[in-house]
Amino acid sequence: MIIYGIGSKQLKEAPVEKISCVNCEHQSSVVVVYQRYFDLFWIPTFPIGKKIVLTCPNCDHVVKEKNFPEDFKRSSAQLKSSVPTPKYMFSGLAIILAFISYVALGSYIDDQMESDYFNNPQVDDVYAIYDEYETSGYKYYFMKITQIEGDSISFTVNEYGYSAITSELLPEDGFINYEFSYSKDFVREMYSLDEIVAIYREYDESSGFNRINITDSLFMEDMNYDLDSAENVNLIE
Questions:
Q1: For the segment 84-98, what is each residue's pLDDT rounded down to a tens digit?
Q2: Residue 217 confidence class, pLDDT cut points 50, 70, 90
Q3: Is the sign of the CA dihedral 176, 155, 112, 139 positive or negative?
Q4: What whole-number distance in Å separates Cα of residue 167 and Cα of residue 140?
Q5: Domain limits at 223?
Q6: What is the DSSP secondary structure assignment for residue 162, as one 8-state letter?
Q7: Could you tell me which of 119, 138, 140, 122 has the C-alpha nearest to residue 130?
Q8: Which end of the chain is flanked by fewer CB atoms within 10 Å, N or C?
Q9: Domain for residue 103, yes or no?
Q10: Domain assignment present for 111
């Protein structure tokens, strides 16, 4: 739940000897300048203007700016504009901008790291794959590099599909003991088509990416991914 509202902060007050109170006829008043601001979670986010009022020190009666005596309106406007807006009134906006910058920088670093991983593949790199043609709803699976030789990259895949991208396998899931090879150009095309949506390297055991499940050849007939472009399909010794 987002908590927001409008607040005000007193910036300045000064006595005005020549203006008497219209309520109790006290012979002096006090002019007070407030800064109004929009807040999020009670943090001033950005200023939205100032207001100025006359108050009576005797009975606390308040007169709004529109009801000021005519001969005082001009000087009160000058007083209001001369009072500076405190910088902390932009605290919330500064926090929001800092957070956006942090997220954007993190995203940029992640993109650069992923690009570096793709351009410099290593054995055991894991590619998260999105298959838009999968009809079951489990459109995500993983390919793991088992060998790089010349212009060919060999992969194995995990057994199960996932409904959303994840950075770890289910306890019962693992990579099969078969490998297949794609040309680097074909893998590059997959990346350009956003079929490769994430690349994992230097993962720990808890991810399950080191898990190998022994699978018989019947499993290969039911694989959800397309092997038509594979150069070969072999049992991992």
A1: 999 989 999 899 889
A2: very low
A3: negative
A4: 11
A5: 121-235
A6: B
A7: 140
A8: N
A9: no
A10: no
The tokens describing 30, both together, are 């006090």
Same domain, 149 and 202: yes
Total number of domains constituting the chain: 2
| Same domain (yes/no): 64, 155 | no
In a domain, 100, yes or no: no
Q: Which amino acid is at 56?
A: C
High-pLDDT (> 90) share of the chain, %: 51
3-state secondary structure of 112: helix
Domain assignment of residue 136, yes or no: yes
Judgement on whether residues 130 and 231 belong to the same structural domain of the protein: yes
Alpha carbons 79 and 11: distance in angstroms, whole number: 11
Q: How confident is the model at residue 236 (pLDDT cuts 50, 70, 90)?
A: low
Range list of β-strands (E), 102-139: 126-130
The tokens for 128 are 């998260």
Residues 79 and 31 in one domain: yes
168 Cβ contact partners less than 8 Å away, ≥ 6 residues apart: 206, 207, 208, 209
What is the rounded (10 degree) CA torsion for 123, 153, 170, 214? -90
Contacts of 219 (CB under 8 A, 6+ apart): 159, 176
10 Å CB burial of residue 223 (0-12, 13-18, 19+) is middle
What digits encode the pLDDT tens for the residues 139-196?
999 999 999 999 999 999 998 999 999 999 999 999 988 889 999 999 999 998 999 9
For residues 55 and 128, state if they share a domain.
no
